Task: inverse folding
């Protein structure tokens, strides 16, 4: 019968365990609820930064159309063009799904006409035929910046004419300085544009600059920057573009079609749900709908009313989508990040459950006498277990309530909490821990049979092996969210590690005990004997310490690997140089010799082509040809594997031979990648590519593997994995590699040997002419320096979230593991106190007692440190293809794992400090405890 005194006595005994369970419940609830929304904010910021950076070269989403003349529409009133552009742009935004529409800004509209011949006084006649001039109207927007005029002003709307028979006023236009000079125009000059069926007078009212401001406009219409000279039927022809107003476009639409573009700016809310899996799926669906946009969705049934611009009809639309590849790349990286976070969370939950079991064991030991008395009086074991469940429900329920409040408080404003499923699963395990320990301890009076232990160990080994085999066979996780298989397999491996340690500890300690018997002191013998006798009881302490240490070492390895790989990626993007210019080959020419502190300059040219083997006609598309000066690279970077390979290869610097009629086809020499060299040793390939003349390449050797990772190839090959063969040309062959403006080339800058470091700002200023917008369609020149590239990579929210997740889980897990170890120490505190009292009675000093405490705990400490470190170091190799980090590093290669020795040593020191502190505390307490305090009636010394 339960009396008030018994209830108070049991409550006084059980409250420490209840407090531990409540604390664990707080952690179990607060962390899973608050971390997912915080991660979503970091992911949203990362996605927003990527979208912003991807839009710099041009719009990610654009809709283009070419109108056709509609005679039945009649003449449109002034201002009809802007109204029509706004109407179709609004309709275009209205056709997309609401999640995608929330990321789209106001469409940026640009209209251009077909080229028309320019005639008039002073207009150049140096080319075959009149210069072809097309007019461009661009709606001003804040993102592209204003057009800056150095002379005159911007074109105005032409005044409305009430008399249709009156002579029309000239259309006001503006030109860049390069266009004005090459076409032969002057400010205020009048000329005429003529095309099939129409003509219109023009007047130049302004001259604008193109070195900065309105960069998207120059990229969209490069002939505004500089005219093009293209070969024609009868000779070279000149084409250029001029800016005008909407009214100027309206006066030229008699017969000629209009080219209209709506650029849709994309802005991702850094606090919104766009970067969540659901948000990404909605964006993906919306983009698929946008790509399928046709006249039926754009105009509906009112085609004549809603699909008209002036007296033209919109015949059809073409959607350019560069956002989807960015979205897919981000989704893959987010998925890998979530898997790593789930990996860390699973380890933390396992440590929490183990800590709960340790607390429950301590509670069962403290109340063992009361439970035995109740059982002797007829109580049922199931009834006592039910009462423990009721007691734990109060503590765990209160802890979960507090954790829920803390989780909500830590959740960013406007965001919802994480999934409650991990909370409920771990909460149920913690809640059932006291009852489970009681039921399990009921049969501990009987020794565990050897065969039963072997069967249990074999079962654990089988489960771990099966999980590991399935994980390696499956490869990379293709789903989204937490990868349960990847998260749980390391826990099974930790259990296997503990089982192995429990098998190794007794024989090791037995040998150590034999050694201690030959020593003079009594302390080593007693300590090692007690450690060996209680090694089996240390299974739980070993498990929590191995889990905490292993996950900490692995987390440090992941963060160190990602950090080092990011530095390697930054070096790859800059070619391993102090600064680099990357862009079309023709844009990289010019005088760069006056840049201060530059000691060496190396030019790396790239070509993408199809190569055909001369022997059997085998065609290989997507081959990468890279040409450079190996001697210059060797002088600038003596440790470069590419330079060493080219300089050491026989024939790589041989004179360029020529073949064909009149010696028009050069025969270049190159080193091939190992796969291509093995397939075609000493082969000769014919190179064919757009914009590249015919040439032959002879393979004279194979590139070593280390040369394939040389960062000098990075700016030319790009950040993605190489999919085609590689041919590396040096010396005279590298200098004669044909130019291909579709492919990026690079100029690498190195400081003077032994001189001051290179100043990136000085290089940027000296390369202002190359960095200015140019009149070509192959892209602009990009300036890169290692510090800026590394800052951009380190600032990525997804990468920072991985490091933060492992740091938080490692810190909390270590504290919980040490707490669980302390609880496990309390279970055997009475036996150790009795031994210490015996030794004190026999005259043993305080230092010897302290040494006894430390030496008794030292085997478990060393075993846990060794097992946890081995587990953390072996996990990357054990998990194999299921754990790939290249999606996080962004480089072309799978990064090699790097051990963070600071964290590894720090974890070992933390465990050592705790054990020493526990031993010192017990030694201090035992000073006040005599033999009479631990002896019981009937016991013998």
Result:
């Amino acid at each position: 019968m339960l009396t008030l005194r018994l209830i108070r006595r049991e409550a006084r005994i059980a409250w420490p365990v209840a407090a531990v369970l409540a604390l664990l419940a707080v952690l179990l609830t607060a962390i899973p609820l608050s971390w997912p929304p915080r991660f979503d904010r970091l992911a949203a910021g990362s996605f927003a930064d990527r979208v912003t950076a991807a839009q710099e070269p041009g719009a990610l989403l654009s809709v283009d159309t070419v109108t056709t003349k509609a005679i039945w529409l009649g003449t449109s009133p002034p201002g009809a063009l802007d109204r029509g552009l706004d109407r179709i742009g609004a309709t275009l935004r209205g056709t997309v799904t609401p999640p995608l529409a929330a990321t789209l800004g106001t469409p940026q509209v640009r209209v251009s006409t077909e080229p028309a011949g320019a005639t008039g006084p002073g207009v150049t006649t140096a080319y075959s035929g009149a210069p072809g001039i097309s007019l461009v109207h661009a709606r001003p927007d804040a993102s592209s910046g204003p057009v800056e005029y150095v002379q005159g002003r911007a074109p105005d709307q032409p005044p409305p004419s009430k008399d249709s028979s009156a002579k029309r006023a000239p259309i006001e236009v503006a030109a860049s300085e390069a266009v004005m000079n090459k076409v032969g125009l002057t400010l205020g000059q009048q000329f005429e544009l003529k095309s099939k069926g129409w003509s219109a007078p023009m007047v130049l009212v302004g001259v604008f600059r193109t070195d900065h401001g309105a960069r998207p406009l120059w990229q969209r219409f490069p002939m505004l920057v500089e005219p093009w000279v293209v070969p024609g039927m009868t000779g070279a022809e000149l084409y250029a573009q001029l800016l005008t107003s909407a009214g100027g476009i309206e006066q030229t639409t008699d017969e000629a079609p209009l080219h209209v573009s709506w650029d849709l700016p994309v802005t991702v809310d850094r606090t919104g749900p766009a970067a969540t899996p659901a948000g990404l799926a909605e964006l993906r669906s919306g983009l698929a709908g946008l790509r399928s946009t046709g006249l039926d969705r754009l105009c509906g049934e009112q085609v004549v009313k809603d699909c008209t611009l002036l007296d033209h009809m919109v015949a059809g639309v073409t959607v350019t989508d560069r956002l989807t590849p960015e979205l897919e790349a981000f989704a893959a990286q987010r998925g890998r990040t979530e898997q790593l976070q789930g990996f860390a969370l699973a380890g933390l939950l396992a440590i929490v459950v183990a800590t709960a079991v340790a607390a429950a064991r301590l509670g069962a030991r403290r109340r063992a006498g009361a439970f035995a008395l109740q059982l002797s009086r007829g109580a049922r074991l199931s009834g006592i277990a039910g009462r423990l469940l009721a007691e734990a429900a109060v503590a765990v329920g209160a802890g979960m309530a507090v954790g829920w409040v803390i989780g909500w408080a830590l959740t960013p404003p406007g965001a919802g909490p994480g999934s409650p499923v991990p909370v409920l699963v771990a909460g149920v395990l913690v809640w059932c821990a006291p009852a489970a320990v009681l039921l399990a301890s009921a049969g501990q009076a009987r020794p565990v049979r050897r065969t039963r232990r072997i069967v249990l160990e074999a079962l654990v080994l089988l489960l771990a092996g099966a999980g590991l085999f399935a994980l390696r066979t499956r490869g990379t996780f293709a789903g989204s969210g937490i990868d349960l298989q990847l998260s749980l397999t390391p826990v099974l491996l930790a259990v296997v590690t503990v089982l192995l340690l429990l098998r190794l500890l007794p024989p090791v300690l037995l040998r150590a005990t034999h050694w201690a018997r030959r020593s003079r002191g009594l302390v080593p013998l007693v300590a090692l004997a007690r450690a060996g006798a209680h090694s089996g009881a240390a299974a739980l302490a070993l498990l929590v310490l191995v889990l905490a240490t292993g996950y900490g070492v692995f987390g440090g390895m992941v963060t160190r690997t990602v950090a080092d790989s990011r530095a390697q990626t930054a070096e790859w993007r800059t070619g391993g140089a102090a600064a680099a210019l990357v862009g079309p080959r023709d844009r990289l020419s010019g005088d760069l010799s006056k840049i201060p502190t530059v000691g060496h300059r190396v030019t790396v040219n790239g070509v993408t082509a199809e190569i055909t083997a001369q022997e059997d006609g085998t065609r290989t598309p997507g081959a990468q040809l890279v040409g450079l000066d190996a001697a210059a690279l060797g002088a600038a970077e003596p440790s470069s594997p590419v330079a060493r390979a080219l300089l050491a290869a026989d024939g790589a610097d041989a004179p360029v031979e020529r073949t064909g009629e009149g010696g028009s086809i050069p025969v270049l020499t190159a080193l091939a990648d190992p796969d291509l060299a093995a397939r075609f040793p000493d082969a000769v390939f014919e190179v064919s590519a757009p914009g590249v003349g015919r040439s032959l390449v002879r393979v004279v050797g194979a590139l070593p593997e280390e040369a394939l990772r040389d960062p000098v190839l990075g700016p030319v090959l790009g950040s993605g994995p190489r999919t085609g063969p590689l041919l590396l040309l040096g010396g005279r062959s590298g200098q004669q590699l044909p130019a291909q403006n579709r492919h990026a080339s690079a100029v690498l800058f190195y400081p003077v040997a032994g001189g001051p470091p290179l100043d990136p700002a000085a290089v940027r200023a000296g390369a202002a002419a190359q960095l200015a917008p140019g009149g070509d369609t192959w892209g602009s020149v990009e300036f890169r320096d290692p510090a800026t590239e590394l800052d951009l990579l380190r600032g990525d929210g997804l990468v920072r979230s991985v490091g933060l997740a492992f740091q938080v889980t490692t810190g909390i897990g270590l504290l919980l593991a040490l707490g669980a170890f302390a609880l496990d120490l309390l279970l055997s505190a009475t036996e150790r106190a009795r031994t210490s009292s015996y030794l004190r009675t026999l005259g043993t000093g305080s230092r010897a007692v302290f040494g006894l405490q430390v030496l008794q705990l030292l085997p478990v400490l060393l075993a846990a440190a060794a097992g946890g470190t081995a587990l953390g170091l072996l996990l990357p190799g054990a998990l194999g293809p299921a754990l790939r980090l290249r999606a996080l590093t962004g480089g072309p290669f799978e990064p090699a794992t790097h051990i963070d020795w600071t964290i590894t040593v720090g974890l070992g020191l933390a465990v050592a400090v705790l054990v020493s502190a526990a031993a010192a505390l017990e030694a201090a307490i035992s000073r006040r405890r005599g033999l009479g305090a631990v002896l019981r009636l009937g016991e013998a010394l």
Q: What stands out?
A: The first strand starts at residue 61 and ends at 69. The chain has a mean pLDDT of 79.
